[in-house]
TrEMBL record:
Record-listed E.C. numbers: 1.5.5.2
Higher taxonomy: Eukaryota, Fungi, Dikarya, Ascomycota, Pezizomycotina
Top-rank EC class of the record's enzyme: oxidoreductase
Highest taxon in the source lineage: Eukaryota
Protein name per its UniProtKB record: Proline dehydrogenase
GO CC entries: mitochondrion
Swiss-Prot/TrEMBL catalytic activity: L-proline + a quinone = (S)-1-pyrroline-5-carboxylate + a quinol + H(+)
InterPro entries: FAD-linked_oxidoreductase-like (IPR029041), Proline_DH_dom (IPR002872), Proline_oxidase (IPR015659)
Alphabetized UniProt keyword annotations: FAD, Flavoprotein, Oxidoreductase, Proline metabolism
Protein family per UniProt: Belongs to the proline oxidase family.
Domain Proline dehydrogenase: 181-439
Alphabetical GO biological process terms: L-proline catabolic process to L-glutamate
Naturally occurring in which organism (per UniProt): Aureobasidium namibiae CBS 147.97
Length: 455
């Protein structure tokens, strides 16, 4: 048994909060990057040697297996999520995990600590430092204050405020987040978290309120001063055009130093994704700033106008992979390699096929002497840990092969257990819809646990 020395953790300490109009769900799943069909001759050897999961603490390994079993059992999942939802939506002190010590003792170690960074600065610092010890290049930390969603008709009726307290709270939360990250880390920003009046401006295509502009200036200047980065989340289509316009204004102002201080999120499930990217590339080229792109598939398929989204999952996959490939090879139609705009690419997702293809292409470009845009990979904390570890292991292999190690990040929220309850319900739901991948993950985690126990 060689458990002790593998006890670097994926722990978190606590929780967080929330977002607003958000729900990231995934759907299906691919196999992990880890081979699941070792040939017979290598089985014995693998029992003895550390696997790519050796970075994960035993506590976290066991928690991954238990939660995986719950998420993939329809009975346990249904009752588990019903309990979590009841707690998240209750106003009773009995069901408030911040006030009921017993409830907190049940939720925090098993669920909260798995998905969230921490409830206070000390816990969060500990989580971040453990992740870096595991080999992650950095983190994306999100202050996710949640504001109840409102229909657009209701947003329209809101009166303007001279001083919007929601924006102040949102700014302070993001500044506090910046205080907890290090150079090279990201702070994740969700505009709708700034409250209903900001959501109103987004939905109606208005300019940002001056108070929000001032808040963003403070956040960007602080991030730049400490060497951190800012990424802006993509949300529902009703907000997206305006989010993109505001984000381009920020990139124009802050991405001038051959570096993407600010990144925009592009949703590949949209039929318009490639056209949007083409426009962004033209703007970046003509105006001379660096385009920061965080590429995701898109989380709102359940609530968006379906016609805006590719008809099939395969088309979404093709769109995601082709965007990554065209950026990495600087071969986007209408542009030539020599004067391709400066781009930084962040591939956010848990799809091993896309990750594998993009990383192989990136390495291929480097080996050919090309200069592909820098690429980073990110997964959510508590999800796809096997894929994250596989990427980290590629870095180990890379050292031998003299290739660049992938830059791997974990993305997570922070806040009190109570504040995090809605986020936790969403993570549970997302994991269930990713049941096939979860089964795969549980399989490799069980194999690793057996290896540590010597059988
Ligand atoms: C670090 C990180 C940051 C993220 N940030 C954001 C964000 O800012 N905004 C956002 O919207 N999402 C965000 N997401 C969520 C992301 O968009 C996906 O929902 C999630 O990652 C699952 O997709 P996947 O790429 O991991 O792979 P997969 O699980 O292989 O793909 C699932 C996705 O494919 C698409 N899809 C599924 N079925 C169909 C179908 N029938 N037709 C067409 N398309 C289909 C959907 O987009 C679905 O989410 C983020 C995810 C991560 C890991």
């Amino acid at each position: 048994m060689n458990i002790a020395k593998h006890n670097l953790c994926l722990y978190k300490k606590s929780p967080l909060s929330i977002q607003t109009y958000t729900v990231w769900h995934s759907s299906r799943h691919q196999s992990s990057l880890v081979s699941r069909q070792p040939n017979a001759s290598s089985v014995e050897e693998r029992k003895q040697s550390p696997s790519q999961l050796h970075r994960i603490s035993t506590v976290n390994l066991v928690r991954n297996i238990i939660l995986g079993k719950v998420f993939t059992s329809p009975f346990l999942f249904k009752h588990g999520v019903a309990c979590l939802s009841k707690i998240a939506n209750s106003r009773s002190a009995m069901l408030d995990p911040d006030r009921n010590a017993l409830l907190r003792a049940l939720i925090k170690p098993m669920i909260y600590d798995h998905f969230c960074a921490g409830t206070n600065k000390l816990e969060i610092k500990k989580t971040l430092s453990y992740l870096k010890t595991m080999g992650f290049k950095g983190v994306i930390l999100i202050y996710s204050r949640e504001i109840p969603a409102m229909p657009v008709e209701q947003l329209r009726e809101l009166e303007p405020l001279a001083q919007d307290e929601d924006i102040d709270i949102w700014r302070d939360g993001n500044v506090k987040t910046l205080d907890m990250v290090e150079p090279g880390d990201y702070v994740g920003i969700k505009f709708t978290g700034a409250g209903p009046r900001v959501a109103q401006a987004l939905a109606l295509g208005r300019d940002p309120p001056q108070q929000l502009l001032d808040a963003m200036a403070v956040i960007c200047e602080r991030a730049a001063a400490q060497g951190s980065r800012v990424w802006i989340d993509a949300e529902q289509q009703v907000f997206e055009n305006t989010i993109a316009r505001w984000t381009v204004d920020m990139m124009r102002r802050h991405n001038t130093n051959n570096q993407a201080l600010v990144s925009l999120t592009l949703q590949a499930y949209l039929k318009s994704a490639r056209k949007t990217l083409e426009n962004l590339l033209h703007q970046a080229y003509h105006e001379g700033w660096t385009l920061g792109i965080k590429l995701v598939r898109g989380a709102y398929i359940g609530s968006e106008t379906r016609a805006l989204i590719h008809d099939t999952k395969t088309q979404t996959d093709e769109c995601y992979n082709s965007i990554a490939a065209d950026l990495l090879t600087k071969s986007f139609p209408g542009f030539n390699k020599q004067d391709f705009p400066r781009v930084e690419l962040f591939l956010a997702g848990h799809n091993s096929d896309s990750i594998r293809k993009a990383y192989a292409l990136y390495q291929g470009q480097l080996q050919k002497g090309e200069t592909p845009p820098p690429i980073k990979f990110g997964q959510l904390l508590g999800m796809a840990d096997d894929i994250s570890c596989e990427l980290l292991a590629m870095g180990d292999d890379g050292a031998e092969k003299k290739t660049a190690a992938p830059m791997v990040y974990k993305c997570m929220n922070w806040g009190s257990v109570r504040e995090c309850m809605h986020y936790l319900v969403r993570r549970a739901t997302e994991n269930q819809s990713a049941a096939q991948r979860m089964q795969s993950t549980v399989g490799v985690m069980q194999k690793e646990l057996r290896r540590r126990m010597g059988f």
